[in-house]
């Protein structure tokens, strides 16, 4: 039945919307595979986009394997962002697939299982040669040097904020002093006015 189904843009968008909300059981794998690969052929894109879809690891691997085996597709980029199931084991298995060497970039933004893995060790952990020119984009890569630099900037910003606060306090103090001087002046004027009235009464 799946083979005879004509995959339209509405079916593609409907499946993507569904997979963003829930996982589909294993018996739906042929449908998932056909729809996503049909979308890939229609888009003529070099990137296989499986981002933010709630796919099981086996489903991810199967779709990628079938896409790599399809001579009409040229997969140079893979986006697995937002998939909380995919980890080092799955990614390592993907790069053991035939023709996986054609993939030159992988996007893993929001994939929690890749936290705290240093960039320098990443390729070795998934069994890829460092000379393969594979680029991995991972939002969880430790950024020690940048964080240290950011810390210095934060200190500068904090110092600037403190300076601004000091300036504000100085301005407030100056305003308070001016107000006090004005009040004292008014009181003095009132006292002098009262004395002038008393002198006038004495003269009368």
Task: Give a quick set of tags describing it.
6% strand, mainly alpha, globular, 4 strands, four-stranded parallel beta sheet, 204 residues, single chain, disordered C terminus
Q: Could you please describe the fold and organization of this structure?
A:
- This protein is mainly α and 204 residues long.
- It is built from six helices and four strands.
- It has a four-stranded parallel β-sheet with strand order 1-2-3-4, covered by helices on one side.
- Helix 5 (119-125) links the parallel strand 3 and strand 4 (135-137).
- Helix 1 (9-21) crosses helix 2 (29-43) and helix 2 (29-43) packs across helix 3.
- Residues 145-149, 151-158, 160-170 and 195-202 have low confidence and may be disordered.
Short synopsis of the structure:
The chain has helices at residues 9-21, 29-43, 57-69, 88-94, 119-125, 144-203, and strands at 47-49, 77-79, 105-107, 135-137. The protein is mainly alpha-helical and 204 residues long. Strands 1-2-3-4 form a 4-stranded parallel sheet, with helices on one face.
């Amino acid at each position: 039945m799946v083979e005879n189904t004509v995959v339209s843009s509405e079916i593609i968008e409907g499946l993507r919307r569904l997979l963003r909300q829930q996982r589909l059981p294993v018996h739906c794998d042929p449908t998932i595979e056909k729809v996503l690969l049909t979308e890939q052929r229609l888009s003529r894109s070099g990137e296989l986009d499986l981002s933010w879809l709630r796919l099981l690891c086996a489903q991810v691997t199967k779709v990628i394997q079938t896409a790599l085996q399809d001579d009409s597709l040229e997969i140079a980029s893979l986006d697995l962002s937002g998939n909380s199931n995919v980890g080092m084991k799955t990614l390592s298995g993907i790069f053991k697939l035939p023709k996986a060497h054609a993939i030159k970039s992988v996007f893993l933004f929001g994939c929690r299982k890749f936290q705290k893995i240093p960039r320098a060790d990443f390729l070795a952990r998934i069994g890829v040669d460092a000379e393969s020119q594979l680029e991995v984009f991972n939002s969880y890569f430790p950024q020690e040097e940048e964080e240290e630099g950011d810390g210095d900037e934060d200190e500068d910003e904090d110092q600037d904020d403190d300076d601004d606060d000091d300036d504000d306090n100085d301005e407030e103090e100056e305003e308070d002093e001016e107000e006090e001087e004005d009040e004292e002046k008014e009181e003095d004027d009132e006292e002098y006015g009262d004395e002038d009235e008393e002198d006038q009464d004495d003269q009368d």
